Amino acid sequence: MTDLIKRNSVKTLGLLSAGLGLLSVSGCQTLPALRRNDSPASLKDAEDLAKWQEADNIIAAIKPTQFPAQDFAITAYGANPATGFDNTAAIKAAIAACAAAGGGRVVVPAGRFETGAIHLQSNVNLHLHDDAVLSFYTDAKHYLPYVMTRWEGVELMGYSPLIYAYQQENIAITGKGILEGNGSVTAWWPWKGDWERRNWEYDANVDQVKTRAPLFAMAEQGAPVTSRSFQENYLRPPFIQPYACKRVLIEGITIRNSPFWLINPVLSEDVIIRSVNCVSHGPNSDGCNPESSNRVLIENCLFDTGDDCIALKSGRNNDGRRLATPVQNVVIQDCIMRSGHGGVVMGSEISGGARNIFARRCRMSSPNLARGIRIKTNSVRGGLIENVYIRDIEIGEVRDAIVINFYYEEGDAGNFMPEVRNLHISNLTVQKAQRAFELRGFERAPISGVTLHHVHFKQVAAVGVLENIAGVDQLDLSLNGQPFSI
């Protein structure tokens, strides 16, 4: 294990083509050789593999959805694919009839159906035909009345998500059809405001800061959630949000052009997200963000997004600590990540903590993929992130490969120390990166408990940033074909 790497010990180091294995920086101590009583590599690998039985146990423990074999076509309740026809009422009627009959599939046939908010009920599977498109309106009036929701980790009474369920059980969205959110430079996305990468005309009258700032202030003051309601509201709704639900399946569909986060299970349990295509390049187009949820499986999905591909969250600041519910028992496997701010991410709204997180057999690559494995938090958010296991990951092209950043957004401006405990990364290969690492802990709360086994950076321009790290268990780590030690 290393001693504490002193503050500012390594700052954006360029790699040299020769002598990399001998790289030495003032204040940075390399790992000592294995002591005679240390476990051999084969035993360490066996111990790492044994941990993965826990991932299989999580998958086995997820309670699956089950639906009666009966269909309720939305066209039987008045739905019409004609342009300009509002199908909201017809879809609502089909869902109500399905639920009243004990459940089944509410079927969207081939065609493009325009609609407002859809609210699922228990035992209902919203099923899209292969050639079906649900096209959602962009006028906010279609997402009223307000519902109990969570926005960037803070609860409020806000716009209904495009597809929403509250305290429902045994629900699903399935099929190979398309959910079209119609987010664009003229609809939804401009509410992001004066964003550094905006490609729309800025309008201060619809800037989300007008609602975001007072909402966050109310949460810090402990205002009741029912009072967190705004007549002037510019907080874009998530696309799919099961809130406090049990047994949720989202499978096969393609989600495009979301106003905000694409899939956002909140305070839910037994969630399966399988074979979903998430394609949205707007601001905050996170692909899948499970928040404070338990027993979640994300597998065989494609993410091509404008923000994090998968981000595990558990509430922002005071509101996250109020609910004190971690995101836990999550398995991510066999997914493909293309564009995005991060591939597999924890944070930044992580005040409730994260534990028992597993990611395996994922492939990531894009000139527009900013980070591969990413943890982001700060001393205002805090949060304990523990028991994280990541293995068999292939990264083609990325900017920063491994990131643990305690200075995200507000930085060290609070009294809630973030902590990373038992983070194991093994069998990770990076073909091309600008930087291998961005590891930034606090001097008073350094990064610790990190294991890097069989991690290889094939072509890297720079080591990156290594700042305030207290212990990394390293085995078979290389950069540009040469052995390397933190």
Would you write up a description of this structure?
This protein is mainly β and 486 residues long. It has one domain (48-483): 3 Solenoid (Pectate Lyase C-like). 11% of the residues lie in helices and 40% in strands. The chain has helices spanning 41-61, 88-100, 209-220, 317-323; strands spanning 10-14, 71-73, 104-108, 111-115, 118-119, 124-128, 132-136, 147-151, 154-158, 163-166, 169-175, 178-180, 240-243, 246-251, 254-256, 269-274, 277-280, 294-299, 302-305, 310-312, 327-333, 336-337, 344-347, 354-364, 371-376, 384-405, 419-440, 450-467, 472-479, 482-483. The strands form 3 sheets. The protein has a 25-stranded mixed beta sheet that branches. Strands 5-10-13 form a 3-stranded parallel beta sheet. The longest helix is centred in the first third of the chain and has 21 residues, at 41-61. The protein is globular and about 65 Å long.
The share of residues in extended strands comes to 35-45%
Rg, please? 23 Å
The secondary structure category is: mainly beta
Largest sheet: 25 strands, mixed
Domain count: the total is 1
Regions with pLDDT < 50 over 5+ consecutive residues?
1-38
**Strand count:** 30
The third-level CATH topology is Pectate Lyase C-like
What's the CATH architecture? 3 Solenoid
Helical content stands at: 10-25%
What is the averaged pLDDT score? 92
Shape: globular
The CATH class label is Mainly Beta
The number of helical segments is 4
End-to-end distance: 10 Å
Tell me the name of the CATH homologous superfamily. Answer: Single-stranded right-handed beta-helix, Pectin lyase-like
